[in-house]
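If I may wish for something, please sit down with the protein I am sending here and say whether tokens and residues agree:
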Amino acid sequence: MSSHYIVNFDPIIFSAGPLQVRWYGLMYVIGFVLAGFILKILSKKKFFTPGVEKIDSLITHMLIGMFVGARIFYVFIYNWDYYGQHLTDLFAVWKGGLSFHGAIIGLLVGGYLFARKNKVSWAEVLDNSCLAGTWALFFGRMGNFINGELYGRTTDSAIGMIFKGGGPYPRHPSQLYEGISEGLILAIILWVIYPRVKNYGFISSFFLIGYGIFRFIIEFFREADAQLGYYFGGTTTMGQILCFIMVLVGLFGLYISNKKLWPVNITSEA
């Protein structure tokens, strides 16, 4: 008998007729509620200048952008071979199929539309979104873990866990690796440097670099998407390619933020 922990959670918290409340959905709700709370703090500190009354609007823009971008990216970048033959499944998000890199693109678009509508800089919106939303990444990955999805590669190490969909062999709990690194650690780093930031654009650029580096490393432990496999001689995943691009974009963003185009005026008010 294997001594490795078996991940076999019931993804449904409770059911009431056709209504099902799932852990994965609850994780997203917790993430967005937490983001709203953090945005109120940032608004009080004058880092988010549109004001508290605009927080719900920002979250709505980002939420819509995130899901649309995540779905489009997954369909056309990660799995078009399937969806090209099954067009009726294009909008069947309940069957799974969201891309985090696509979510980033969607968040950028949603943030741009909010910034234009409220006449503030795009950089300010993105910085606030990163400060408020990075914590939510932790809860999202915990949802993946509970669902037993996005598991890692097989391993003989003691930390390996057995996932129902991953066969009988222990695998790296890469969801936990990602939640801790891309969520908790990166969020803490952003909050440590945020009071010292002089220009908008720095936080979001640093987020792209930090997330890109963490995710690039964890991809070595995460199972590659079956429909894509590996690139460059079987050593590189699509996730790593996209993370490399994220880091480059983040470095360019740091360069732009140093131009002092969008100065920050943070208050010390508690």
User: Anything to note?
Assistant: The chain has two domains: 50-120, 131-263.
